């Protein structure tokens, strides 16, 4: 009889343990997955916002460069956060002015089209405070880190 | 054996409890991470509503517009009065200097720095005589006088002389030095190119010579008429002797102005060299600069004078 | 022994629930508030108000009505002509062209305004003078400024006296410092908010 009790005890223990382990693993997995997806959304949101702000500033700089008419120069600073949801990011600017923001971890890419009249020097900068520089000599907008 | 029976169930129950606790702690930390994520999203939302540097662009352009308007007003004030080119430069510079200093005081209240500076001024000289009975010497009666220095472009230069007032050379017009010796009226450019205007008998003659021994080019008209240096016509017909353009930093002077009587009108880009010639400002070039936390802007603007009254 | 087991179970579960609850409370506490969280305004409305104020000031300068109102100064009373006994207008619409423009642009749209003029006094400090003061603006008010040049040849409208003939005690923007025909440069500030 003591042997039966011992067997039933260990089986009961194992079953209970496995049920609790299963439950907690399930809870962890769900919550962890939920947090991960929320982080993805937050990073996407943040990149979109920063991209739109940079696009607005670029358009304003383009307007200023057009009115400058090759007879002046200016430097405009853009306040972009260094990290978005804990992740650093890169900003690619191409010839026609389309911005591509790419976060490092998790890897999410957001594209923002910018309607420009003038020219932008294609470049890649890391996220953070930026400077948009215009020189009447080259008649191009240059974006670089501060 | 009783001990054995006692240990096992206790061991089983404490293990299960700790697992529950671990799960609880794990979920709690995940919730805290979620809260941090929420903070990030709220911050992003706040970043989106912040004012960007685009308002600074409006301010910079607005200041530039105000500076250009002020310059235009200063030019209009100077051009409506009389004064030498040096006076005009002093006045415009002090006007804009004052304006720049006061505007900078107000800009400093908003943590901005603005300034306007006069870089350069170009003038035009305007001389005219409408009394057809007075001779072509200057107001003090000097027959040889300089009208304009540093002339770059002639806008209008017309002259009408009474033929009877001109010197009759009686055929003695071989070259420049011969004409000079007879005291013939001439308009000189840089002192070397001279356009003599005289009579040969009753025929009014215009001769352009480039040096003392140069015979140059000639054109005649039996009755005289309007001499126009810009369209190069003498009494309406083309006259190559009036081909003195283009000018570059030249000095325009009159020799023997007492040997001709008539009217003239001259408008030239350059500096007046005689009190009889009035100066006008054609352009003022200003350096406009604006600096705020988000934008540093500088531009050189050339402001032309408005339509003359 | 089974009682101990049950109690330990309950205790562990209770503590686990407490931990999760504490985490939830902590998470709610650390959620940040931003300056706009408690604000009643919308950024779009503020931008629209700012654009209206800017274009109004530019128009007023272009048609000269702003300068006329600044020169509508009664030297005896040392206040604006037709103003309240306090020296400034107490309504956003008053009897000059600029006042009517303010009324059309703002009061007809359910907004109201304050107008201040800043000048550099004889002590080289910037002073502020109220032109229109309706009340204290709310937190959501917008502010726009513009520069106005006053010349020696300009005349105060009630007395028709030239600015160069005024004195420091008779005209607020009097200045004896400038040698050119520019008498003084003042900054006009318009504060607009919705009522």
Protein architecture, described:
- The complex is a heterotrimer of chains A (146), B (309) and C (195).
- By secondary structure, chain A is of the alpha+beta class.
- In chain A, a hairpin with a 5-residue loop joins β4 and β5.
- Chain B is an alpha+beta fold and 309 residues long.
- Chain C is an alpha+beta fold.
- Chain C is 32% helix and 23% strand.
- In chain C, the strands form two sheets. Chain C has a four-stranded antiparallel sheet.
- In chain C, β3 and β4 form a beta hairpin.
- The termini of chain C are far apart.
- Chains A and B meet through α1 and β1 of A and α1, α2 and β13 of B.
Short description:
Chain A has 146 residues and is of the alpha+beta class. Chain A has 1 helix and 9 strands. The longest helix of chain A has 67 residues.
What is the CA-atom radius of gyration of chain C, in angstroms?
29 Å
Q: Determine the structural class of chain C based on helices, strands and strand pairing.
A: alpha+beta
Cα-based radius of gyration of chain B, to the nearest Å? 41 Å
Mean pLDDT reading of chain B? 83
Q: Looking at the structure, what is the overall shape of chain B?
A: rod-shaped
The overall pLDDT of chain C, averaged over residues, is 84
Number-wise, the strands of chain C total: 6
* Structure summary, number of beta strands of chain B: 13
Question: What distance separates the N and C termini of chain B?
Answer: 124 Å
Order of helices and strands of chain B: HHHEEHEEEEEEEEEEE
Overall 3D form of chain C: elongated
Share of helix among residues of chain C? 25-40%
Low-confidence stretches of chain C: none
Instruction: Characterize the largest beta sheet of chain B: strand count, sense, and whether it forms a barrel.
Output: 13 strands, antiparallel
Q: What oligomeric arrangement do these chains adopt?
A: heterotrimer
Q: How does the major sheet of chain C shape up?
A: 4 strands, antiparallel
The helix-strand sequence of chain C is: HHHEEHEEEE
Helical amount among residues of chain B, as a percent range?
25-40%
Strand portion of chain C: 15-25%
């Amino acid at each position: 009889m003591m042997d039966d009790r011992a067997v039933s005890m260990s089986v009961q223990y194992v079953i209970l343990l496995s049920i609790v382990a299963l439950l907690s693993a399930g809870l962890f997995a769900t919550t962890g997955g939920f947090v991960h997806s929320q982080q993805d959304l937050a990073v996407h949101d943040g990149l979109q916002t920063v991209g739109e702000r940079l696009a607005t500033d670029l358009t304003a700089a383009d307007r200023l460069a057009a009115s400058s008419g090759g007879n002046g120069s200016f430097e405009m600073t853009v306040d972009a956060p260094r990290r978005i949801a804990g992740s650093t990011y890169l900003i690619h600017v191409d010839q026609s002015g389309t911005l591509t923001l790419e976060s490092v971890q998790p890897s999410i890419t957001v594209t923002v089209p910018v309607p420009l009249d003038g020219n932008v020097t294609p470049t890649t900068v890391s996220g953070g405070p930026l400077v948009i520089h215009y020189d009447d000599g080259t008649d191009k907008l240059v974006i670089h880190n501060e | 054996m009783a001990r054995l029976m006692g240990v096992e169930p206790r061991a089983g129950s404490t293990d299960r409890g700790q697992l529950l606790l671990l799960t609880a702690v794990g979920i709690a930390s995940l919730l805290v991470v979620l809260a941090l994520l929420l903070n990030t999203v709220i911050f992003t939302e706040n970043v989106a509503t912040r004012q960007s540097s685009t308002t600074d662009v409006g301010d910079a352009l607005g200041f530039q517009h105000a500076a250009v308007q002020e310059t235009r007003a200063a030019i209009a004030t100077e051009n409506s009065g009389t004064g030498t080119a040096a006076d005009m430069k002093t006045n415009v510079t002090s006007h804009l200097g004052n304006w720049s200093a006061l505007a900078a005081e107000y800009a400093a209240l908003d943590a901005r720095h603005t300034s306007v500076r006069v870089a350069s001024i170009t003038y035009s000289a305007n001389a005219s005589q409408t009394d057809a009975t007075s001779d072509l010497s200057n107001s003090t009666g000097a027959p040889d006088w300089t009208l304009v220095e540093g002339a770059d472009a002639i806008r209008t230069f017309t002259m009408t002389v009474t033929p009877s007032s001109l010197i009759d050379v009686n055929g003695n017009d071989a070259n420049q030095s011969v004409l000079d010796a007879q005291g013939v009226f001439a308009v000189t450019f840089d002192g070397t190119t001279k356009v003599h205007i005289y009579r040969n008998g009753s025929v009014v003659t215009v001769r352009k010579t480039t040096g003392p021994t140069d015979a140059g080019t000639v054109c005649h008209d039996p009755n005289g008429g309007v001499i126009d240096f810009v369209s190069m016509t003498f009494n309406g017909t083309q006259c190559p002797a009036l081909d003195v353009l283009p000018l570059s930093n030249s000095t325009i002077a009159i020799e023997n102005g007492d040997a001709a009587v008539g009217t003239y009108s001259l408008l030239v880009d350059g500096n007046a060299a005689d009190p009889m010639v009035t100066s006008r400002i054609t352009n003022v070039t200003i350096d406009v600069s604006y600096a705020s936390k988000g934008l540093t802007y500088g531009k050189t603007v050339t402001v032309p004078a408005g339509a003359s009254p | 022994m089974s009682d101990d087991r049950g109690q330990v179970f309950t205790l562990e579960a209770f503590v686990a629930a407490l931990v999760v609850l504490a985490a939830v409370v902590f998470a709610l506490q650390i959620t940040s508030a931003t300056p706009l969280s408690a604000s009643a305004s919308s950024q779009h409305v503020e931008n629209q108000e700012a654009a209206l104020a800017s274009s109004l000031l530019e128009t007023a300068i272009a048609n000269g009505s702003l300068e006329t109102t600044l020169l509508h100064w009664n030297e005896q009373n040392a206040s604006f002509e037709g103003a309240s006994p306090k020296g400034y207008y107490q309504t956003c619409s008053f009897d000059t062209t600029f006042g009517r423009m303010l009324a059309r642009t703002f009061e007809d749209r359910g907004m109201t305004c304050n107008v201040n003029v800043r000048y550099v006094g004889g002590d080289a400090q910037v002073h502020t003078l109220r032109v229109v003061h309706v009340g204290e603006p709310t937190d959501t008010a917008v502010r726009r400024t513009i520069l106005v040049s006053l010349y020696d040849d300009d005349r105060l409208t009630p007395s028709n006296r030239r600015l160069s003939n005024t004195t420091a005690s008779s005209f607020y923007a009097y200045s004896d410092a400038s040698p050119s025909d520019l008498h003084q440069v003042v900054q006009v500030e318009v504060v607009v908010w919705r009522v």
